[in-house]
Amino acid sequence: MNGRGEELIRYRLSRAGETLEEARLLAENKHGNAAVNRLCYACFYAVLALLIRDGRYSSKHSGVRALFNIHFVKTGEVPKEMARIYNDLFERRQEGDDDDFIVFDEVDVQNWLSEAESFVRCISEWIQRADKQ
Description:
There is one protein chain. This protein has one domain: Four Helix Bundle (Hemerythrin (Met), subunit A). It has helices spanning 3-28, 32-53, 61-73, 80-98, 106-132. Helix 1 (3-28) packs antiparallel against helix 2 (32-53). The protein is an all-alpha fold and 133 residues long. The model has no long low-confidence stretch (mean pLDDT 94).
């Protein structure tokens, strides 16, 4: 991995952490739909870092999900339960952004926040392990 790639991975993981913090603040202020949007993006940024580490890239959310599922979930490198978190948040984000009269429950948002934090941590740890090999 060259210096530019490593810098981009660090940047994406940093963005994932910042975006989780944004989601926390939105959830605390009862902005559930916006919080879910940020949770999805936090996971997206973490997955982008993972794909960069593996030399893969897509400019579309659907492409990022597909690459992640094909190259990391189906191979068993990332647990299916972790993939479920990202895939569910992706669907919820679309629902909250695009559908009418969707208001996410505060308890659900808090649970998703915890899951997204676990997801970002899992991806960060995977990258750290891969870098040591």
